[in-house]
Amino acid sequence: MITLDDLKSELERIQDLPKFHKMIEFASLLTEYFEESKRIRPIVVGGLSVEIYTRNDYTTRDIDFVSDGWEEFNKVLTELGFSKVERDWYHLDTEIAIEVPSNFLEGSYDKVIELQLPNGRKLYVIGVEDIIIHRLEALHSTSFPEENEDYEWALRMFLIHKKDNIDMDYLLDKAKETKTDKLLDKIIETSKTYSEEN
Fold first, then answer.
1. Phi then psi dihedrals of residue 167, to 5 deg
2. What's this model's pTM, rounded to 2 decimal places?
3. Same structural domain for residues 105 and 18?
């Protein structure tokens, strides 16, 4: 079982890794620690999930988890030398930032994937359908949504995963429920054009 001391030494070990690998490694370490010692299952959401689903095309600066046990995160991250800055914990030496914006997943727990990593550890990641919907929801108040980067990333995730990983019935239902169905229709139409061209 991974201990707090293990986390400290691993944090030093990963310090010089590229940003994405460093965040993935540390997120998997925290996942193992919290799952084994606290029976808490953190789920990666937000920008890091987009980065995972776009195969590192998107870049983010922090790790967002949806998780119970906010106070446990606070205690452990403080022990590891993280400083609390507004809503984030920040580690100066590794430049890792972590936020736990909620203990409630806005999406389906059934769609959460368990991602096995080369380091032998795992991450739980919000379903691709739900992160596509989240990106489209961010466009509700935008005048030209197709020109917004959130639309672009929703489109990219759809194109990458549409053949194998997307539950279209679920995605269409969530789009109707969140009133993003017109935007999703545009993405589906655009994806047909991409398919014809390739």
1. -85, 95
2. 0.93
3. yes
Number of domains, the chain = 2
**Whether 116 and 181 share a structural domain:** no
List Cα–Cα distances, 129 to 9, 45, 53, 169, 189, in angstroms. Answer: 36, 12, 11, 10, 17
Distances (CA, A) of 182 to 21, 179, 195, 196: 36, 8, 20, 22
Per-residue confidence (pLDDT) for residue 141, from 0 to 100: 77
Q: Are residues 95 and 135 in the same domain?
A: no
Return the closest-CA partner of residue 117 out of 59, 2, 31, 11: 31
For the chain, 198 residues long, the average pLDDT of each consecutive 10-residue run is 93 94 96 94 97 93 94 95 93 95 95 95 97 93 84 95 93 96 94 70
Where in the sequence is the domain holding 182, given as residue range(s)? 128-197
pLDDT given for residue 195 in this prediction: 64
In the chain, DSSP finds a helix count (H) and a strand count (E) of: 8, 7
Task: For residue 129, give every residue at least 6 positions away whose Cβ sits within 8 Å of its Cβ, in sequence order, or none.
Answer: 107, 108, 111, 166, 167, 170, 171, 174
